[in-house]
Specification:
The chain has a single domain (about 5-230), classed as NAD(P)-binding Rossmann-like Domain (Rossmann fold), CATH 3.40.50.720. Strands 3-2-1-4-5-6-7-8 form an eight-stranded mixed beta sheet, with helices on both faces. The protein is globular and about 45 Å long. The chain has about 240 residues and is an alpha/beta fold. The chain has helices at about 10-25, 60-70, 90-105, 125-130, 135-150, 180-190, 220-230; strands at about 5, 25-30, 50, 75-80, 110-115, 155-160, 200-205, 205-210. Helices cover about 35% and strands about 15% of the residues. The longest helix is centred in the middle third of the chain and has 18 residues, at about 135-150. It has seven helices and eight strands; from the N terminus they run βαββαβαβααβαββα.
């Protein structure tokens, strides 16, 4: 059984992913912004542990990494937490996954939540520096991170997942994709012994898809990593 961290697991796809993994017998550590968001009586009993912190705040991102380190090296980390059309889009959707990845021990597997909307994102990284990026920009950048790590870290697989437009609080009631299928790929990538390609995939419902061309551009990957290091003061190993 695997030890898995799922960020943004108080509800929506994060909670569904954590529930599925725990139901399969895996040891799941969930991240929530604060413990008050865990309402059900079994919300703490079923987890290996809970880490808390606001991923819109750089100091709290560091604290989440510190808390997570107490559980040892994870077999998989699923970077699920995300927000849409809010001032903190850049920090939650791109900066937090970068910082947590840089600050934590490398797991065997990394999974990052992307979106089909990343195809409309911009490669203008000045938007990152001033915090003026769109949701599509942040998803382009986090997808690029996933594929950059796949190319750089031997022994750690890294994938990006488009969960589809699903009826969560973020997606809204009018969303047309299947909610169950929205979390299955993440759990599968985190634990299944036979995934092809084994790293560097962009997935939709367990099927590889073609991401924005910039995500596989080594020059853009390097530019993004450098911009994030400057922005956070955290260097990637």
């Amino acid at each position: 059984m695997a030890l898995v961290l799922v960020t943004g697991a108080a509800g929506g796809l994060g909670r569904d992913t954590a529930d599925a993994l725990a139901g399969d017998g895996h040891d799941v550590v969930v991240h929530v912004r604060n413990r008050a968001r865990l309402n059900a009586a079994d919300d703490t009993a079923r987890w290996k542990g809970v880490v808390t912190g606001d991923l819109a705040d750089l100091d709290e991102i560091r604290e989440v990494a510190r808390q997570a380190a107490g559980f040892g090296r994870f077999d998989a980390v699923i970077h699920n937490a995300g927000v849409m059309n809010r001032p903190e889009d850049v920090t939650v959707n791109t900066v937090a996954p970068y910082m947590l990845t840089a600050l934590m021990d490398k797991p065997a597997r990394l999974v990052y939540l992307s979106s089909s909307m990343h195809h409309g994102g911009s490669t203008d990284l000045r938007r990152l520096a001033v915090g003026a990026a769109s949701y599509s920009d942040t998803k382009l950048w986090v997808t690029t991170l996933a594929l950059a790590f796949a190319a750089r870290w031997e022994g750690t697989s890294s994938h990006a997942v488009d969960p589809g437009w699903v009826p969560t609080r973020m997606g809204g009631r009018g969303a047309t994709d299947d909610l169950t299928a929205g979390h299955e790929t993440q759990a599968w990538l985190a634990t299944h012994p036979d995934v092809t390609p084994s790293t560097g995939g962009y997935w939709y419902h367990r099927q590889p898809r073609t991401p924005h061309t910039a995500t596989r551009d080594e020059r853009f990957q390097e530019q993004l990593l450098a911009a994030l290091e400057r922005h956070t003061g955290v260097a990637l190993d």
